[in-house]
């Protein structure tokens, strides 16, 4: 997956929006007021995503391209190197998982403002 594809997958989520709080890089994608994805520039693209701790460890063991979150809480964040070794369906699942975790943790008023249902956190 390339930067444009992962960015579109993130931005298409209900209530998601782009922010650049650190300058021109990285792109930070938020749902309401909280960040759920960071998309770095360069090649290959690096994307950081929130993850529940047990799943984060499992993904790191399964994929060499999944590392502890770069400059983030390494228990709750993974950085995925988008070098083609992680299947697209798995990258999309990781984005959906990150979005769901963050959206479900929003204050009630922000959570209720989302127009679509929040995706299930469990694997399908």
Automatic annotation (TrEMBL):
Molecular function (Gene Ontology), one example: DNA binding
Xref: Gene3D superfamilies: 3.90.1150.30
Keyword field: DNA-binding
Source species, domain of life: Bacteria
A matching Pfam family: YjbR
Stated name of the protein: MmcQ/YjbR family DNA-binding protein
């Amino acid at each position: 997956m390339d930067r444009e594809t992962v960015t579109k997958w993130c931005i298409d989520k209900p209530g998601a929006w782009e922010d650049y709080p650190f300058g021109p890089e990285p792109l930070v994608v938020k749902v309401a007021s909280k960040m759920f994805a960071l998309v770095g520039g360069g090649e290959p693209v690096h994307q950081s995503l929130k993850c529940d701790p047990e799943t984060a460890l499992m993904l790191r063991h399964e994929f060499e391209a999944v590392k502890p979150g770069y400059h983030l809480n390494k228990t709750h964040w993974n950085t995925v190197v988008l070098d083609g070794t992680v299947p697209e369906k798995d990258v999309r699942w990781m984005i959906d998982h990150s979005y769901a975790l963050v959206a479900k943790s929003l204050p009630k008023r922000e959570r209720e403002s989302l127009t679509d249902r929040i995706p299930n956190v469990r694997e399908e």
